[in-house]
Amino acid sequence: MRWLNLVRKREKLINLRKEKEMVQKEVVSLLKKTHGIDITESYYGMIELGVRTPSLTIALAISELFQTNPNEIFF
Q: For the whole model, what pTM was predicted?
């Protein structure tokens, strides 16, 4: 059940990005430009897939970028 909840949250993250008509590369670029967070496209992709769990700083920055509560997509 916990795993299913994680999958749903990560699907929400992907949908938020797609709603803004962004590709992963643009998200990574905006994170660097607006928050000084330097991650690779590959790492961001792994976050979306649920393979990697971002640090609190990165999770909060992504949540801010998509104007959503971090609990809805990460915790």
A: 0.86
